[in-house]
Structures are given as structure tokens and as C-alpha cells.
Amino acid sequence: MTKISDIYNFIGTKAPWDTKLNFDNVGMLVGDAERGVTRVLTALDITPEVIAEAAEFGAELIVSHHPVIFINALTSVTAQSAPEVLALAEYKIAAICAHTNLDAAPEGVNFHLAKRLGLIEPYEAVASDGVGRIANLPQPVKMQDFLKTVSAELKTPVRFYDSGNAVSRVAVCGGSGGDYASADEIARHGFDTLVTADIKHGQWLTAVKLGLNLIDADHFATENVIVPVLCGWISEAFPNLEVKVSERYGQTVKFFTGE
To answer: Structural domain of residue 69, as residue ranges?
Structure first.
């Protein structure tokens, strides 16, 4: 029978655990690695809704992108301090979480984000952390046309700054990547557009000053592209397992347009 440790080791071949950033907490965070597994649920986050879904599905394991235990100094597991961890333990569901190691993986979050947006190889790494990716469009397009592609492919409204320049060479970073809007990164990699999320006000001002097209396409939307990929990887490697993407966890942020 397939063990949870088998899936942990397999994910490590796709996104080596030791490539995580220093602040991060990844790996097998809850459960017994030697326990057998027959069903697996994949999700961006391990929320109470996802745990309930996993229990109903009969899953012994949830594989997520965001860590269920992010603070390494966790000192208690109670309904108040760590309700998700407590629920996992009560249901005997394990948790494997691949975060920044999956962001930086050669075919990880940003590889698939770039592909989803129609960018073509080579996918160069951005900055020393190796998390973001840079690639080119087959041909330059107007910013308004690229915005339509981003919004449609990621199924989300977007915030943007249009510099007036065409979109040709694009940097992508799922989640919080506003730091890439810098003169040093642009000079090093020559991109004209950045697609990321959680962009701060000062980063918008920097983009304006540098003439950089900037698109904030939402943290959830820019990272959720990896969840079905995780499902596919595990299904292919372990055809004896039942693996599915969580159907209950979706975008929790709502957008009011005034309409």
C-alpha cells in the first residue's frame, strides 16, 4: 500500500524541500508518515471547510500549497490557537504543505502561471530567491488585450498600471511579488510587465516612475493554478489512489464594482 511518506518523497522530487525560503515552514506538518493512504485532497489552503470535505471524501491526506502551521513557534494546539491542526488530528488526516519550494520549482507555481498567461519558454528565474519567472509573449500586445487574458485565464478582476508600453517580456510571481518592481530587477532581466499580487502603494509608485506595466491579479488567483497540477502529479505517480481537487475552497475575497 502507498504510504504518506511515499507522496512526501515524490513531491520532493518535483519541488525539493530544501529549496524553501528561510522564513517558510514546509513538508509533512501533521500526521504519521508511515500510515497508508488511499485518497488525497489537494487545495491552496487547509481551512475548516477543506478538512470537512477531506473527511467526507475519506482522504487520509491533504496536500496544500500554503502551510497549515506557518508559525514555527506554535506552543499549543487548541480550538483557539490552532483549530485546523486540531481538526486534522481529530479526523486523523495528514497534511503535506509545499510552499516556497513549490514557488521556485522548475515546473512549479510560477512556471504554470506563466504558461496559463500564454508566455513561452525559456522561463528565467527572477532574483536570487529563484521564485519568480520571466518569459516572453509570442508577439507584443497592447496592455488592454493582455489584461483581458489575465482576467479571463485567472478568473479574477485585476488592478493595473498601464505605462503605455506594449506587453512583451513579462515577469510573474504568484502571491506577493511586488518587490520585483524595482530598477535593479528590470535592469537585470529587461521585463516590461509584472504580474503578481498584494502590491503595496509604494510599489505602484515605483512602477509608475520606471514605466513598468503592473498587474495585481490577486494572491489566490495567481497561486491557485498549482492546485490541479498537484492533483495531476499525484494521480499520475500513484494511479492506485483517488485524488481530487478541493471543491469547497475557492476565492474568499469579494469584489464590489458598484454595479
So the answer is: 4-102
Q: How many CB atoms lie within 10 A of CB 132?
A: 30
Q: How far is CA 75 from CA 33, 51, 72, 242, in A?
A: 22, 22, 9, 34
C-alpha cell at 111: 512556471
Return the SS3 of 177. Answer: coil
232 in a structural domain: no
CB-CB contact of 39 with 48 (8 Å): no
Tell me if 251 is assigned to some domain: no
Mean pLDDT of the chain: 93
pLDDT digits (tens, 9 = 90+) for 91-118: 999 999 999 999 999 999 999 999 999 9
118 in Cβ contact with 10 (< 8 Å)? no
C-alpha 111/C-alpha 120 separation (Å) is 10
Quick one: average pLDDT of 243-255?
A: 79
Contact 5, 37 (CB under 8 A): no
- Residue spans of alpha helices (H) in the chain: 4-14, 48-57, 83-91, 100-104, 109-116, 143-154, 183-189, 201-210, 219-223, 226-237
pLDDT tens, 151-161? 999 999 999 99
> What's the predicted TM-score (pTM) here?
0.93
Residues recorded for the chain: 259
Domain contains 237: no
